[in-house]
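Researcher: I'd like a structural prediction for the single chain below. Treat it as a standalone chain; there are no partners to consider.
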Amino acid sequence: MPGDGIGPEIVEEALRVLNAAAKKFGHEFSTEEALIGGSAIDATGTPLPEATVEACKKADAVLLGAVGGPKWDTLDPAIRPEKGLLGIRKALGLFANLRPATLFPELAGACLLRPDIVGKGLDLIVVRELTGGIYFGKPAGTEVRDGKRTGWNTMIYNEDEIARIAHVAFQAAQKRRNKVCSVDKANVLDVSRVWREVVIEVSRQYPDVELSHLYVDNAAMQLVRDPSQFDVIVTGNLFGDILSDEASVITGSIGMLPSASLGSAQPGLFEPIHGSAPDIAGQGKANPLATILSIAMMLRHAFDMSVEADAIENAVHKTLQAGFRTGDIMEAGKTLLSTREMGDKVIACL
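Model: Treating it as a single chain, here is the predicted structure.
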């Protein structure tokens, strides 16, 4: 699903890299294109056509570019492009969002942290529960109480919702450095005490993975004090929303970061975390590396092809080491490339 803005450009380069990896390792991938977001509104009047939902459900994995743009900002919120993204997550039952925050050594100068902290490295994944918690809990609403406007929301999780996201986190850690940090607010919130109990219970099924716990306020502090201590962070919807943004922005290069949204039975959805950047769409200026790295996540998590995923990630590293940059990560003394040229360099390194 290329989507809107720079979406078609970056998805095109990612698919070129996927095909190069397929050729290198003797695989064959078949792809089908579907509409979502503003492009779907223009073509069908809805941000998520039923044909798109059906195509996604039949697939083994889904790749998304980006959705939205000022062209559709005046539409009714019920049919805005972003509704397509929320809709496909719901349709596919995607309850786990995996967002890596990785500092590429070649881009260390863009990191917002002190050099001594940067020197320790930054390579973690935030696993965020995506379909429960305070964003979806009932009751919720607003009313006038005693003459005062009042609003309320309910933070609620049951043990099954907690267990399934915990399994995703532990399994992700097994493919990394075997460490999980569960983030909650168990000193204050009843829901967090249940969260912690269930995560501990699930951890017994993964004796090879080290489990630790942090309160969310301390976790937010530790992310900027010493992010090198983290491997996989697992947490609820609200805390994960905040911490994943914090983790990604401290790398200083939002154009470099992929993500994955996973469910239990349906295919996963893989996408860069940046937006549609309509101001540079069609100009060959977009950075395709986050989408290319989303392909690597897709290979690792949807197809269990870790060797192939490593090869793509290494190719991105080599491209950056050779001094090639797009405009968003450009620095003095480096070589500026177009979107297509960056895809060419990654393929050559692969």
